[in-house]
Design goal:
This protein starts with a helix and ends with a strand. A hairpin with a 2-residue loop joins strand 2 (98-103) and strand 3 (106-109). Helix 2 (53-60) packs across helix 4 (85-96) and helix 4 (85-96) runs antiparallel to helix 8. The strands form two sheets. The chain has a seven-stranded antiparallel β-sheet. The protein is globular. The mean pLDDT is 92. By secondary structure, it is α+β, with helices and mostly antiparallel strands. The chain has helices at 3-18, 53-60, 65-71, 85-96, 155-162, 167-171, 182-189, 193-215, 227-234; strands at 46-49, 98-103, 106-109, 120-126, 135-140, 145-151, 174-180, 217-219, 242-251. The chain has a single domain (3-251), classed as NADH Oxidase (3-Layer(aba) Sandwich).
């Protein structure tokens, strides 16, 4: 990337932050219906019931919070051991679990989000997880289930390719892909939505780091990926929904 491109990017970021947003024109202010809190899932899609994630995290995550924060680190080497389905459910609960639905447009989860809008969907490239066939899944936090989108051995290699050939992705037990549906946040915040979506992504991934540490697993956040290839891998359109963050997970 050239210095000219970097300067252009910095200028755009500063202009976006300084921009005065007219909140009277948001969908919420105009009494338009809010986008659904969870992306709809077709009835024809196979679903997998998950163990109670809250209970799993309480049972498996015995490490004190202070120790988990102290020991938190990026881990790129994983053992061949699979994750248990209870461990996966604990990690999903820690990152996007639903604690309460305060209103039809407002869900309280295990991570903070601007206006409780939670614009993310969680996709999983499963490589080695007990009870799950290798393939692509989507977390349905309001149902406590996974939607089985594709069963495909070798999909972890596709994930590594989408992450610019970073080989440790292929060796992970499971790789978390978070997408953003910006309309959820735009409904409340208009043009200010795009800044807080980026902020919210950090909240989600930090919870994954701490939960992994607590259960004896490891992760490494990835922002270096091919946007088009990732979106194609997940089956999203790249406009109304697109990849924003990636994190492989495996046993240490």
């Amino acid at each position: 990337m050239s210095d000219k491109q970097l300067d252009k990017g910095r200028s755009f970021l500063k202009d976006t932050i300084r921009q005065r947003v007219d909140f009277s024109q948001t969908g919420q202010a105009r009494n338009l219906p809010a986008p659904p809190l969870q992306k709809p899932c077709a009835r024809s899609v196979t679903r997998v019931d998950l163990p109670d994630g809250q209970q799993a995290l309480a049972t498996l995550g015995r490490m004190p919070l202070a120790e988990a924060i102290l020991r938190r680190e990026s881990v790129r080497e994983y053992t061949p051991a699979p994750l248990g389905i209870e461990e996966l459910s604990a990690l999903l609960w820690a990152t996007q679990g639903v604690r309460d639905v305060a209103a039809p447009w407002c869900a309280l989860r295990t991570v903070p989000s601007a206006g409780a809008r939670h614009s993310f969907e969680t996709y999983l490239v499963v490589n080695r997880v007990h009870s799950l066939a290798p393939g692509l899944y989507r977390y349905l936090p309001f149902d406590g289930q996974l939607a089985q989108l594709a069963v495909r051995p070798g999909v972890s290699r596709d994930a590594a390719f989408a992450c610019l050939g970073q080989g440790f992705v292929a060796n992970a037990a499971v790789t978390f892909f978070w997408t953003a549906i910006p309309a959820r946040m735009e409904w409340r915040y208009g043009m200010a939505a795009h800044k807080v979506i980026a902020v919210d992504a950090g909240h989600v991934c930090q919870n994954l780091y701490l939960a992994c540490q607590a259960i004896g697993a490891g992760t490494c956040a990835i922002a270096a990926y091919d946007q088009v290839v990732c979106d194609r891998l997940l089956g999203v359109d790249g406009t109304d929904e697109f990849t924003v963050y990636v994190a492989p997970v495996g046993k240490r």
